[in-house]
Each structure stands twice: as structure tokens, then as C-alpha cells.
Amino acid sequence: MAYDAHISGTGRLSGGEYNEVHISGSGRWDGPIHCKEMHVSGACSGTGNLTVMEDMHCSGSLRVGGHMDCGEIHISGSANVEGNVAGHSSVRVSGSLHCTTLYGGDVSISGGLNTRKDVEADSFHMSGAGEIHGLLNAEEIDITVSGIPRTIKIGQIGGSEICIRPSTSVSLLGRLFGNKTTGVAQVGEIEGDEIDLASTTADVVRGTNVILREGCHIRRVEYTGDLVLEGDAQVDEKVQV
User: Fold this and answer.
1) Is 21 strand, coil or helix?
2) Which of 15, 58, 151, 187 is close enough to 40 for a disulfide, judged by CB 3.0 to 4.6 Å?
3) Residue 139 is part of which domain span?
4) Alpha helix (H) residue ranges in the chain
């Protein structure tokens, strides 16, 4: 029968089956952990896979040496996962997340995201910066580029509704140094139905209806419906198919 595990201060867990895991302070586990719920306040790290059937809450620092598979993920702070991350219902990050691939039902990132491969979600909302080396795929994608550095790099984007825009606010550091540069998105290819972009550079954009606003420079646009250019948006090649 699974039992609860509590660490207050400094402690260590053996790999195995648990009901609820509560860590307040500094904790570590050895081997795979499988539990119903996990709550971390402080710092926690482990060498094996982490499986949380329901809610994973972390306020502080989390390092996982394997994969992390959860029902819901709530991170306030930083999480560094060597393997893949799955939040089958939702993923909420206020801070930073580094992992190999990210899967989530409803993904919301406020801060930084870096993945070595792909991101797949039902919906993806992000305000921040970082890098997705592979494909970002979701039905609804809404990205506001902000933070330092004020850049997000993505290999490919695919979805139904895609919106990318820079943050309208200027950071305190930017004001001090007179830097009013808005955020920039650098993407290889973008493919969707309804596409609305600002301050974005891309090799290819394919869509039904495409709106390109201030700060866009696209090498090639392929569209079946309407193409709208606003401000200083530039397109090297336009193809209506």
C-alpha cells in the first residue's frame, strides 16, 4: 500500500510508490518515483523518472534526471528536466522550464522555455523568451515575446490559429539604458489557417489568411485567402495558391 512521504528541512527518498510527497526545504530521490501528488517548496532533485498521477506543484527549484509525467504541472520557479515533460491536463510555468520535449493539454508559460526537441499541446500561450529547437504544434498558439534576451527562436510552428507579437512594455533595465527594442521571434517555417504576426522573421509562412504587421520580414508567403501587410512588413516572395 502506498504511503505519504514528508521531508522538512533536508532529506532523501528511495525510489518507489507513494501516495502524497511533500518536500519543504531540500530533498532528493534515488530511482523512479511514482506518486499521486507532489508538492515541493524549496529545492528538489532526483536521478530517475518522476510520475505524478494528479497534481505536481513546485515553488522553487526542481531537477529531474529522467522523464516527468504528470496530470497537471504547476511550476513557480525553475525546472530542469533531462528527458520529456508531460502535463496531460495542463502545464503552468511562472519562471523557467528546460526539457527535451514538452507535451501538455493547455500550456501556459510566463518566463522562459527551452526545449531540445518538440512542443505539442492543445493550446499554447507564452509570454517570455527562449528556444524551441523542433516543432511547436497546437490548435491555438499565442506568443508574446518579452524578457531578456527579448527573443524566441522556434524551428517550425504548426496550428490552426497562430498569433505572435512583441510585448508593449519596456523593462526597467531597458528604460535605464534607453533600450526600447521590442521582442523578436525567429522562426523557420510557420503553417496554419489564421496567422497574425508582428516582429517576426521566417523563411516560409503558409496559411489561409495571413496578417503581417510591423517588424515582420518573411522570405516567402503562400496563402489561399487574404494577405494583409501593415507598417514596414516585408515579404520577398508572395504566392497565392
Assistant:
1) strand
2) 58
3) 126-230
4) 172-176
